Amino acid sequence: MAIHLYKTSTPSTRNGAIDSQVKSNPRNNLIHGQRRCSKGRNARGIITAGHRGGGHKRLYRKIDFRRNDKDISGRIVTIEYDPNRNAHICLIHYGDGEKRYILHPRGAIIGDTIVSGTEVPISMGNALPLKSTSTDMPLGTAIHNIEITLGKGGQLARAAGAVAKLIAKEGKSATLRLPSGEVRLISKNCLATVGQVGNVGVNQKSLGRAGSKRWLGKRPVVRGVVMNPVDHPHGGGEGRAPIGRKKPTTPWGYPALGRRSRKRKKYSDSFILRRRK
After folding, report:
1. Is residue 119 scored above 90 in pLDDT?
2. Among the listed ranges 71-80, 148-157, 177-186, 197-206, which one has the minimum average pLDDT value?
3. Domain spanning 25-202, CATH architecture
4. Largest CB tally within 10 Å, which of 60, 82, 94, 225?
5. What is the pLDDT of residues 207-244, one digit of tens each?
6. Is residue 211 within a helix (H) or strand (E), and if so which, with residue range?
7. The domain 222-277 is classified under which CATH number: 2.120.10.30, 1.10.10.60, 3.40.50.1100, 4.10.950.10?
8. Are 235 and 228 in contact, with CB atoms under 8 Å apart?
9. Domain(s) of CATH 4.10.950.10: residues in the chain
10. If we measure between CA atoms, which residue out of 247, 243, 246, 221 comes closest to residue 233?
């Protein structure tokens, strides 16, 4: 992904850096409207996720995470921008006339051919089970869009630049190293797409101004120590005061900054061999 640096002709473009423009011209039968976000509020109107609200209207693109069009080859026609995710998406024209969106694999270009199934070659963009009858995925293969439950569609490694590695196979399970560093067991029958998700340099972008952040639906972040006591446990005091506690807390009084929030005795604990970093 090419990074375009702005000239410092105005204060708002100073230090700005964006990726090369990828046009968005979605097909009408693959998009639909969506309800405006709840701005971080629950059904009672209470803020449960801060710094959210506003933002530009978006149309949702229907992404094919299941890749269940078996043994029908498709051709990449366009590479488009998706406002609902950091990764770019590809429009695929299949041989039977169907058209679908998928996540853009890194290195894929317009005109490339992809296919999904159990007897497909291990090449970039192809979707196949972690263990098939004839095409055995070798250890060390880079994969993304990985299923957790067979037939439900890919749920792991879907963000821009995300990639997981197949590190072992034993019995009915395969061992994967996920982008978070977690080592997890997945059924060998689950589908995964070969390669890495595209738009790898998304973290190199610099919006350059606050307005660009607001277009994304992200509001300013305010420190709790400068609030009033009624708004945050860190608030209050005369002048510039410390938080007044041994350890920092969330606005609701729970321990913050490093406290593990995962449920104990969760059903998936038996599948996780090493927790994420």
Report:
1. no
2. 197-206
3. Roll (2.30)
4. 82
5. 888 999 999 999 999 999 999 999 999 999 999 999 99
6. helix 210-215
7. 4.10.950.10
8. yes
9. 222-277
10. 243
